[in-house]
Amino acid sequence: MSKIMHAQQTVHLGLHHMERLSPMDPFRSAFNRVHREGIPFVLIAFGLAALFMIFLSETLGWIFIVLGLYIVYFFRDPVRMTPLLPDALISPADGVVSKIDEAAPPADLEMGDGPLTRISIFLSVLNVHVNRVPCEGSISKLVYVPGKFINASLDKASEDNERQLVRLDRADGRSVAFVQIAGLIARRIVCSLDVGQNVVAGERFGIIRFGSRMDVYCPKGMEPVIAVGQTVVGGETILATDDAVNPRPDGRAD
Prior knowledge:
Layout: H1 2-16, H2 25-32, H3 39-55, H4 58-74, E1 81-84, E2 88-90, E3 95-103, E4 116-123, E5 130-132, E6 137-145, H5 157-160, E7 163-169, E8 175-182, E9 189-191, E10 198-199, E11 204-208, E12 212-217, E13 222-224, E14 231-232, E15 238-242, E16 250-253
Antiparallel strand pairs: 1-16, 2-15, 3-4, 3-14, 4-12, 5-11, 6-7, 6-10, 7-8, 8-12, 9-11, 13-15
Active site: 212 (schiff-base intermediate with substrate)
Pathway: Phospholipid metabolism; phosphatidylethanolamine biosynthesis; phosphatidylethanolamine from CDP-diacylglycerol: step 2/2
GO biological process, one term: phosphatidylethanolamine biosynthetic process
């Protein structure tokens, strides 16, 4: 267990050591890479800012400039260093672990009704909202479920809210389920995966706009190595692993 945590800390520190040099570095990196889903919002905000500045009100123009800067920050898509561990699950989202419990995976994914360890991650409006694949495998089932838009931090959000269900089959025969869940403000779930697609850990696969939640159902035999209340980084933080002690992992930047 100590080796896993050491490897996780090493990868995280190695990638982010430059970000701690200046408080402005995260903002600079936000402008370097924006998810394509955010580009229309950015153009609209700055377009309105220009119109107000020129024809109507400079004050309103500045308000839209600030709004545009926030939109750029929200849709930021930073590079992440993903630990390449075949017997581990990597966090598919940035946020805070809100719950770890035992629950049956969604019936629509046809993974049986036996309970699996479920890790729920809540994303605030300040988190990176780009989602990443938690492990290597093949996408075997995708199910979109329309629903409500209640607070994503509530337990019933897993059953009531709009969500995208994903089943991934691993090479070892076990399956992983992960679910994009819309929140109180979120009004669009984007999932770019296709059935039959082969994916690798840390690969980008979608985004949820403006506050949301991600549920991960671990395969049998995997145990969480994180705690409720812990902040996790999508594409980097190890959520769960097999009982075996892992060596120090290699990494994959994307």
